[in-house]
Structures are given as structure tokens and as C-alpha cells.
Specification:
Layout lengths: L6 E2 H9 L5 H4 L2 H5 L8 E3 L22 H4 L9 E3 L23 E2 L8
Antiparallel strand pairs: 1-4, 2-3
């Protein structure tokens, strides 16, 4: 936001949630941060790496159940996670119901020098 140095999107989002950004300034941020910070209505969850089991030296072992078998056929890893709830005195820099998905990208207010 005006007069502030360039900052990582994740840090800016935390500042909004923590009421560090004044509410009157938070209202116009979604339009200028949405592309740089990749504002979305949910946070994509990175898939967990699959682990190939090492062959056992014993020929007869009982296989462990897979996550799908344990959950009754439903996938246990969702493809996205809901955006966090915002405290009453805080704001979402991405706008209502949206959150930053590129936490490490640097946002610099247009016309402000990067530090």
C-alpha cells in the first residue's frame, strides 16, 4: 500500500489479518494485489509425494491398507483448503472470501520503489 516497501504477499496477508493494515486502506488492495499474490477462493494443497515401498526380504507380508481403503473409498487428501477466517478487526488483502496463494511473491505498490 502507498508509502510501504515491497513485501512478500504472505507477509502482507498476515498484516491484513492482524489489523496492521488500516481497514480504510484494505478496501482497495484486492484490485492491485490479486495478480501478484494469486488471490483465490481456496488454497491449493500440494500433493503428497508417493512413496514406493522397498521390496521386503520376506516373501509373505500382509500389505498395509491404502488411505482410500481406510476412508471408505473417499480420497483423503483434498485438492484445496479453505481460506482462513479473518478476525473482526482484520481484513483480507485479496477481498472477502479470497486469500493469497503465492505467499513468496513480492508485491510492490505501483509507483513505489522496491527496497
Amino acid at each position: 500500500y502507498p508509502g510501504q516497501p515491497a513485501v512478500e504477499c504472505g507477509v502482507l496477508e498476515k498484516a491484513g489479518h492482524g489489523a496492521v493494515i488500516p481497514l480504510d486502506q484494505c478496501g482497495y488492495l484486492p484490485q492491485i494485489v490479486k495478480d501478484d499474490c494469486k488471490c483465490r477462493s481456496s488454497i491449493p494443497v500440494a500433493p503428497k509425494p508417493t512413496h514406493q515401498p522397498t521390496p521386503s526380504p520376506t516373501p509373505r507380508q500382509t500389505p498395509s491398507p491404502t488411505p482410500r481403503q481406510i476412508s471408505g473409498g473417499r480420497p483423503t487428501n483434498p485438492s484445496s483448503s479453505k481460506c482462513p477466517n479473518i478476525p473482526d478487526d482484520g481484513c483480507s488483502i485479496c477481498g472477502p472470501g479470497k486469500c493469497v496463494t503465492d505467499f513468496d511473491n513480492i508485491f510492490a505498490y505501483p509507483g513505489q520503489p522496491a527496497v
